[in-house]
Amino acid sequence: MSARPASLLVIFGATGDLAQRMLLPSMYGLYRDGLLPADFRILGTARSELDDDAFRASVAEALDRRVAAGDRDEASVQRFLAAVHYQAAAIDDAAAAQALGARIQSLRSGDVVYHLSTAPRFYAPICALLGAVGLAGPGTRVMLEKPIGHDLASAIAINDGVTRVFDEARVFRVDHYLGKEGVQNLLALRFGNALFEPLWNARHVEQVQITVAETIGVEGRGDYYDHSGASRDMLQNHLLQLLCLTAMEPPAHFDPSAVRDEKLKVLRSLRPITAAEVASHSVAGQYSAGAVEAIAVPGYRDELGRGSDTETYIALRAHIDNWRWSGVPFYLRTGKRMPRRCTEIYLQFRAVPHSIFKGSGARMNPNALIIKLQPEEQIELTLMHKVPWLDRSGLKLSQVTLDLDVHDAFAQTRRRLAYERLYLDAIEGNGTLFVRRDETEAAWQWIDGILDGWRAQGVTPKAYPAGTWGPSSSVALTERHGHSWRE
């Protein structure tokens, strides 16, 4: 870990969509609020032949589009743009690489963070280039966007290439979900309240559901997505990280090693889904034409412009074979073109062992905790409550919800973009919210087992109309065990 905050951020792929949409607006938020060192500089680099002024113009346009007017003022924008620089470079151009190295040296006044917002296949070559020009030594660290690789073998190859130049302590693997306020609050909810942790185990929890649903299609990312699919694009990182935070044991301290050690234990406790079990424990789907929010949308193959067997939906019944969670099913699902956008964690508690109200005809429903992460951050606890009346024909109960709307509770606090927190931690050298190499490879090992099983059994995605909750077989995945998806 660096002894002092970095004073230079170098973004590779700085003209790309992620940089313009999320990264540069996030850095502006930190800069405007005075959270960066006074001498902090940003250097963007990509293949595009731009000078500083042209790049600054594109950044200004991105801020106009992506930053709310109330969070933007001309004076702070101009100060931020003055701290932004650009150097065109290509990793296969030795002269351009040397020029980039010279530019970094000219702007550097302390530690440096390199953010590789590029395709993962470029991670090792970029790191090798930085090492070759003497810019990867002490006082430098590198951020890598997930997913790392396409499978376990490619992840190992990429990690090997990166760590030949940057030791593991200086590698910050980004899963932007870990920077979201609601995801962070999951740790506070679990480990900051005596109410929940005693109940957070197989003795009291009947089932857990984790859903990441999107209403969008491939949005111009067809070639990338067709190579990855829902399993690699979403399950391997976002869903498994949410699973780890939900299921992990309490870490001894809130520090990088302790938190990531506990997440790794969860991944290593996941029961493999073998080829013999993929039919009963997994569902793959692909959206066909339909309607989302009353708007007609094309099917995946129509958007892609060709035939494809890539899954846009995956649902799993997973088990964690450890003392805390033995016997509790974890249902995971993610998909595109769902009826609504949501990311949520649903814990259904076990029913009371005996209902004293059975003779009155009162219907009992199990308690549940719903942690909503997006689009709105809410925490809901469902409880049984007496229906107010005179009870002449028997006491009646109804399920009610205790609801905490995080936006209402903290209305005066500006909501931060996930990358604001992740950037600030990387600049300060704090790796708690980043993914360690062994986590990445343990996740790939589990996912590869499922994908290998699909290939062995000839599993192909089942069609589901856009605007629905996936193939009908996903209903059977839960209902054959007496459970139902929360929709």
Name some characteristics of this structure:
9-stranded mixed sheet, 21% strand, Rossmann fold, Dihydrodipicolinate Reductase, domain 2
What is this structure's SSE topology?
Layout: E1 6-12, H1 17-32, E2 41-45, H2 52-66, H3 74-82, E3 84-86, H4 94-107, E4 111-116, H5 123-132, E5 140-145, H6 152-163, E6 171-174, H7 181-191, E7 205-213, H8 222-247, H9 256-269, H10 278-281, E8 282-288, E9 290-292, E10 295-297, H11 300-304, E11 313-319, E12 329-335, E13 342-349, E14 368-374, E15 378-386, E16 397-405, H12 406-409, H13 418-428, H14 437-457, E17 462-465, H15 473-479
Parallel strand pairs: 1-2, 1-4, 2-3, 4-5, 5-6, 7-12, 8-17
Antiparallel strand pairs: 7-13, 8-11, 9-10, 11-12, 13-14, 14-15, 15-16
Structure description:
This protein is of the alpha/beta class. It folds into two domains: 6-145, NAD(P)-binding Rossmann-like Domain (Rossmann fold, 3-Layer(aba) Sandwich); 179-246 and 266-417 and 455-479, Dihydrodipicolinate Reductase, domain 2, CATH 3.30.360. The protein is 37% helix and 21% strand. The chain has helices at 17-32, 52-66, 74-82, 94-107, 123-132, 152-163, 181-191, 222-247, 256-269, 278-281, 300-304, 406-409, 418-428, 437-457, 473-479, and strands at 6-12, 41-45, 84-86, 111-116, 140-145, 171-174, 205-213, 282-288, 290-292, 295-297, 313-319, 329-335, 342-349, 368-374, 378-386, 397-405, 462-465. The strands form three sheets. The chain has a nine-stranded mixed β-sheet, sandwiched between helices. A six-stranded parallel β-sheet has the order 3-2-1-4-5-6, with helices on both faces. Helix 1 crosses helix 2 and helix 5 (123-132) runs parallel beside helix 6. The longest helix has 26 residues, at 222-247. The model has no long low-confidence stretch (mean pLDDT 91).
